[in-house]
Amino acid sequence: MNVIEVENLHKRYPNHVAVHDVSFEVSEGEIFGILGPNGAGKTTTVECVSGLRVPDGGTIRVAGIDPHRERDGLRRVLGAQLQSSALPEKIRVWEALDLYASFYPDPADWQELLERVGLGAKRDTMFGKLSGGQRQRLSVALALVGKPRIAVLDELTTGLDPQARRDTWELVEQVRDSGVTIVLVTHFMEEAERLCDRIALIDAGRVAATDSPAGLVARVGGEQRLRFRPSGPVSDAVLLALPEVTDVSRSGRQMVVTGNGNLAHVVTLALAGQQVIPADLRIEQATLDDAFLALTGRKLV
Amino acid sequence: MKKIILMESKLLARDWPYLAFSLALPVGLLLALGQIPDLAKPNPDFGGERFVDAQLPAQMILLSLMTLSFTVLPGVLTSYREQGVLRRMSTTPVHPGRLLSAQLLINLVVAAAAAVLVIVLGSLVLGSHVPSNLVGFVLVFLFGAAAMLAIGLVIASVAPNSKAAPGIGSVVMFPLLFLAGMWIPREIMPDALRAVSDYSVVGPFVNAMRDTWAGDWPQLPHLAVMLVGLALFGGLAVRLFKWE
Fold this sequence. Notes:
By secondary structure, chain A is an alpha/beta fold. Chain A has eleven helices and 13 strands. At the A-B interface, helix 2 and helix 3 of A face helix 1, helix 3 and helix 4 of B.
């Protein structure tokens, strides 16, 4: 069942068009990623979905609700953690949760929520004294305090250190496991690949493709790359003669062999036939970055 | 709404230097200026009244309203806008307008507390008069406070950021204090200046307060100018205020 349906969304600002034509559907219980470079229109899209901006064209339905017309109804089913939305410096963690809980008719038990996001020990800490990761955890808790069916999380891990980022990912997975549908806006390929069930790739205000991470990667073909330092001289021709190999290139002492099928096996075998050992052998497969590049002609980051 | 008011009050108390300043400035100035012998003598310009009897306390009440409305309120609101506090709140069922209302109310209460302090301490320490028409005084105070807060909202709307807001507030504050007769009492102002003062919202505000000190009811033209100011700046604030 679809909980969000966006059709031909269009949004203009005085000086530019932020969203040209965006359509996607989010089904219940999934983590849906909106992935694209900065300035692609991701935030504007979720702002329209969250009822903060009025679209100039197209239709949006969130659990059957028109976000623009039924502001109150929307806010009961959708919680949002948006970019550049903070709290007063001197508000304590528990006070923020208690205050935000009072905004909803049937709020979650915020004491329990506090433990769930791992801020139990920070209960009495002021917002201004929290680390970036802790702020984001509080942010997620505030987005969940109204017991929403859908949570919009915008650039949740931007600016976090790798450890805090992993912890936040775990939290997002936990939230989904509790039955909340999640719309995750990100420009991190790794984050989208790890968390999302399906992803809409957005570029310059349009959807380039919508699919599962594996599906998107498959669209650019199952191409693989081998990188290694050969222990002795190897001619390109030997490797190019293999049916699995499509391209051979060199950078410094490193060789890069591109191809498909059982590439690693046949290449190492051919090298062994020449008495050459591939040192520092690495196998690279296509990533979402490659998919994005192939689909839009642009780099993701 | 109760919780928002309570929370905003707590936050103001945590930024206690602001609070202390907006109470201590008018009270401190009142007591300090009250020591100047010339101001404590009957003055023919005021019909034989002493400056400290009604003129000085009325000016101090205006001063506290102005510091709160022109610097404290815009400072808080612009920083809320800057940090995205208002934006975050607009993702909840409660409109951020509630936060704004809570701020207006709290500043009004602090200004009222400052007014009570000024009147009580003025009377106890300097022997100043107490407004004899108390109902009239409260009425005038509310009119004036509403007009000042409306100007404060306009400042919060046009200030580009929270650093600029108190500066803009001070720039607005000093000419208005001057027009209100802070440095040259209105009675001895040149006619042209007094005419400007008559329409400056703060001039009528101080005059109307002094009328209630004398036991009279405020004059309609004074209230009318304040009401026009309130409508003008309130309307401007509604048009200009940005939530993010």
